[in-house]
Amino acid sequence: MAIEVRVAGKGAITSERPLSGRDVLRRVAPGDADHVMAWRVNRYLRPLGWVVDEDAEVEFVDTSSFEGIEVYRRTLSWVLALACRRALGVDVFVRHSISHSYYCELAEGEITEEKVARVRDAVQALIDQDIPIVPEVLPLDKVRRIFNRQGNHDKARLFRWAAQDPVNLYRCGKRYGFFYAPLAPSTGFVGTFDLLYYPPGMVLRFPTVAYPTGLPPFHASSHLVDVFREYGQWLDVLNVSTMASLHEQVAQGRAQDLILISEAFHSQRLARLAEEIGRHRDIKVLCLAGPSASGKTTTARRLEVQLQVCGLQPVTLSLDNYFLSREQTPRDEEGNYDFEALEALDLERINSDLSRLVAGEEVQLPRFDFVTGSRKPGRTVRLGERNVLIVEGIHGLNDRVTASVPPDRKYRLFVAPLTGVSLDRHNRTSTTDNRLLRRLVRDHNTRGYSPERTLLQWPSVVRGSHRHIFPHQEHADAMFNTALIYELSVLKGYAEPLLRTVSEESPVFGDAQRLLAMFRYVPVVPADKVPIVSIIREFIGGGCFEV
Predict the structure, then answer these.
(1) CB-CB contact of 495 with 436 (8 Å)
(2) CA distance 101 to 264
(3) Terminal-residue alpha carbon distance, the chain
(4) What are the Cα distances from residue 502, in Å, to 460, 491, 494, 517, 521?
(5) Predicted confidence (pLDDT) per residue in 351-401, tens digit
(6) Residue 407, preceding bond cis, omega within 30 degrees?
(7) DSSP 173
(8) Nearest to 188 by CA among 296, 76, 270
(9) Is 127 exposed, middle or buried (0-12, 13-18, 19+ CB in 10 A)?
(10) Of the N and C termini of the chain, which has fewer Cβ atoms inside 10 Å?
(11) 375 touches 364 (CB < 8 A)
(12) What whole-number distance in Å separates Cα of residue 265 and Cα of residue 487?
C-alpha cells in the first residue's frame, strides 16, 4: 500500500516502502541536505533517521531556524565529548553560554593550549569520518549500566530519578549518549565549528540563526568570567553540580535550604553592588538593562533597598514610559510593532529629562498607557545630593539612551540569568529557555496570554535581544546573574500544565514538546517557600514588589 508524504513548501511524494527523513530529503530537496538538521513529522520534531510508514505531513528543520541551530549545537556538543575521550581520555563538562558559544571545562585535569589543539583535531577527525549517529531505544536498567560502564555516572544518576522506561539514546560507534531532543544523523553534519583556549576552560563555537553557515564574532566580557567563577562557588556550597544532584537534595528534604541559600547569594551580591555604587559619590545615574524576563524590575527594587542601607535615596525611572505613541512605533520585518527596537523610544525626551535631572532641575516624568498606546503626565522628580536615579529598561546600557549623562556620572549594570543547572555534563539547560519559561508563566498570570501566544512571539523577542541588547553587555561596569539554582523546579509546577495546552495543530507544538521533554528530568519544588522578595516572584506572582 502506497504512503503519501506531504512536505511543507515542496508538495507531496508517494512511496511503496517506508521513508526516512534523509530519503524524503533526497527526493524533494537534495540541494538543502547540508543545512537540514532534523524534520517535523506530524508536528513532532524527529531525527532525520526517523522512518514514516504511513501518510504524514512533514517539514524540514534547517540552521536558519532556532530549532535547527539547537540540533546543531547538541550534536556538536556530543562530538566534542567524543573527541575529549578520544584525544585525552577524559570527559567534558559543557558549562555555560558565552558570546553565542559554549564555555566548557574538562571533568578532570587542567586545560592547556596543547590539549585544546589535540581536542580540536579530534573533533575535525570525527567530522571528516562522518560517523553515523544512530537512535536506539533501550530499557532503563540497561541504560544505567551502559552509562556507569562508560564513566558517565552523572547520566546514570539522572535516570535514577527520571523514571523513564524505555529510554531514547544515541550511539556513535561504540559509545552511547543521551539528549532529550534530536541530534543530526551523523558527525559530518556539524562541520562548521571552532575550539578556542579560554582559561581556565575552552570555548566551543558554532553557527547561529544570524550566521547559519558561518561563525559569529566572539566577544566575551571579562565580567562573565567573574560570574562563572562565583556561580561555581555557589554550586560547591550547595553541593549541586547537575540536575541529578538537585534531585538528591530535594529527596533529602533540603529544598528549603537550597532556596534560602540561593536567595542569600543574591542578597549578598546586590549588597556588594550597592556598596560599590555608594563609594562613588559622583554617580547619579544607575543604568540597569537586560533582556526580556531577566528580572530587571525586581533587581531594581531590591537594589533600591540596598542603596538605602548605604545611605542613598534611589529613584527609579522606567524606560517603558518613554515609548513613542502607537502610530509612531516602528514595525519589524513581519509588519508587527517592534517594541524591542531602540527606535520605539523617544530618545530626545529621555536625554532631555536625564540632563535636567542630573543638573538638579525638577522634571515631570511621563507615564505610558499601554491600553491607549500613548503617554500621559506622570510624577514630578527632583534629584537631591543623596539621590541616585535608576534607569531601568532593555536599552539601559545603550549609550544613545543616556548620551546626555557624562560617563563619570553613571554606572552600568547588566542583568540576566547567565547560568543554569545542567541536566548532565553534556545537556545544558538553556538560559534562553529559562527566560522563555519565566515569561510564559508571567504572561499567563498577569496578561492572560495563552502559552501559544508567548511561544509564537519568542523568536522575535530573542532576535531583538541579540540585535539590541546583548551587544551592549560588554560596556557594563558589572553583571548581576539573576539565575536561581532551584528556579526550574519551581517553574515546572506552573509551566508544565500550560505547555500541555498547546494543541498538535499549533506551529509551536514542537517547542512545547521539547520543553516538556526537558521538564521530565527536573524535580518539583513547591513555590510556597519562595521568599516574597525573590526574583522568581516577578514571574510566578506573590511578591512584595509591584511588577
Answers:
(1) no
(2) 30
(3) 59
(4) 19, 17, 14, 14, 20
(5) 999 999 999 999 999 998 877 888 899 999 999 989 999 999 888 999 999
(6) no
(7) T
(8) 76
(9) buried
(10) N
(11) no
(12) 14
